[in-house]
Amino acid sequence: MQQPITSEAPRTNGQPGGPCAMVIFGASGDLTKRKLIPALYNLSRHRLLPAEFAVVGFARRAGTTESFRAQMRADLARFCDCAVEPGFWDWIESRLHYVSGDVSDAASLKRLQQQLAELERDHGTRGNALFYLATPPQQFGPIVRALDAAGLAREQPGNWRRVIVEKPFGRDLSSARALNEELRAVLSERQIYRIDHYLGKETVQNLLVFRFSNGIFEPIWNRRYVDHVQITVAETLGVEARGGYYDGAGALRDMVPNHIFQLISLVAMECPISFEANGVRDEQSKVLRAIAPLSQEDVLSRTVRGQYGAGKVGDRELVDYRNESDVKPSSSTETYVAMRLEIDNWRWKDVPFYLRVGKALTRRVTEIVVQFKRPPFALFRGTAVEKLSANRLVINVQPDEGIQLHFGAKIPGAVMKIGTVDMEFNYRDHFGAEPATGYERLLYDAVLGDPTLFQRADMVEAGWSVVQPLLDVWQALPARNFPNYAAGSWGPAEGEQLLARDGRRWLTQDGR
Ligand code: BG6
Fold first, then answer.
1. Does domain 20-166 have CATH number 3.40.50.720?
2. Which end of the chain is more exposed for a tag (fewer CB within 10 A), N or C?
């Protein structure tokens, strides 16, 4: 599916955005080479970048425009999921520039300013600038203050300045609020683009289209017909080289208030009054604020944490999480979380939302399951009502992007027997697979000035408010049974018990 929402948005229309320069802070880091440059390359292939466009890489590492271009060319060949076509790459490469410097140094900012002035002259970028903070979060505040001091954050009549920030947006509710204040001391909210790469995924964007462009689902998308919802984000990888960051964060902070809550908000939100950015984000924010707060008892009874021990995932042997590099040998950081949440509003009251996320699990899969209620009465002789399987809608976010609807059908033969069958839509079969990093749509929208798929401050704070009680209780009561699941399993037994207590089970793992 090409640009499903943009086809309805008057501003986008599949046309390139207006002139601008993009400045990447942290240009020598992983994100730049793995995601940002490949995404810009893909956008250029689709002719979605403006003709008047240029990129400035800014980092402390010594280097020149020539060395930066050569490095990005080599990295693209390594990280782009495609054969690099020289014509498109040459176009981008001729627009790449590099400034080596430190944001705490006024002379470095001066050089950046001069570079931007040159680009305005040579590439017609018209003073518009998109600053991408691909840096550790401690630098967000210093960078925006440096931009302010250099006069680079201020918009003048006729031009715009926008800042993209990457998660983590704080590490708890109070630090998230402090970060929002730090950013807003310099920028207005409409200049801040908080990126969540889950919203760059086609299947996640499709949730809006699926729910609100089809008439048949909305009437049954509520507590009368839905029994419960499950969201599974299972990864097979361990922490790899990110032990230093991850051990201070854990699965809850790393995935839940951001990626998972984006998924919940899109599944559970009310229909927005329009697809204009604040129309959509108001509804997402409202549903996040309606998640029932967890008491201390709820944290103990409705949430599960786990940490992986040694085991085999496929044919890879993983060591204990505590033996991974840069992880404390006595770490009580969780690598798995499961919980049962409820949304206190008219649509969802009493419909449990079960979530789980974990590293070093048996299969890589991100899936949303909407389980409908069973039919009230068994009409067919010999089939007890509890034997009838309920309808289920499964949205595969990755890796096999698609949607399935499970329903009962008569098994052919003289005897009345009911079996479960699927109706299936698969993205790849239907639309073909386009190489993409997930950042294309988000960068494109940021250039256009469409913040619909970016998080607003209130959404971030609403997410942290929900997880804050877990952070508090878990900190006060460090887990004593870690490691409690083997790498290559589906997580700790308590994760299964969480649903079993309600007479349910995780539906993703049984292979359906
Ligand atoms: C990142 C987390 O935000 O998302 C990682 O920091 C995680 O720990 C990743 O692996 C998952 O993203 P995806 O797109 O692979 O599901």
1. yes
2. C
